[in-house]
C-alpha cells in the first residue's frame, strides 16, 4: 500500500481523501496548518502541521512517502482579491518532489481550469468569470507548472462540489469532447483519487469528474 501525503488535509476534498485513503488501508500523512485539529482516529494517520508555501515544511513532509495528493482551497471571502496560493504552493511542491524522488502527484484543480475552460456553457461563462476568475487564473498557472514537471501527474477537475456521503456513481470524463459541468460529492472525488493512486489509469492526463445526474 502506498504511503500518501495529502496536502490541504484539514477540510474539503483533502479531508475526504484522508478518510477514503485510510478506509482503503493506506498510511496517510495529513499535511495542513491545522493538521493537529483533524478529528480522526486511525493508527495509519499521521498529522503533519505545516505551511504549503514553506519549502522546509514541504520537504520534511515528503520524506518516506510514495505519492502526493494536492488538494488546496481558498476561503470564499478571498476569491475577489488576488489569488496566488495554487501556483505558489505548486512552485514549492514540484521541485521538492523532484529532489526527493517522489514522482506520483494527483492534483485537484477544477472544471474550468486549463483547457477545460472552453467547455463551460455560454450561460455560465460570465458568472464563472466574475466569481472564480482570479482563482482559476491561478489554477491555470498551477496546471502549467505541473505539466512542465517530470512528475507522474494526474489533474483532477471536479464539477460543482456537494457534501454528503460518497455515492460511487460518478463519471470520469477523460476526453476533451466529453467534458461538461455537473455536480459531484467531495467524497466521490476522494474515492476517485484513492483509486487513481492505486491503478495509475490517468497518468499524464486531466480528467473531469461529475455525478451520473444530469449535467449543469
TrEMBL record:
NAD(P)-binding domain segment(s): 8-199
Top-level taxonomic group: Bacteria
Name used for this protein in its record: NAD(P)H-binding protein
Organism for this UniProt entry: Methylobacterium ajmalii
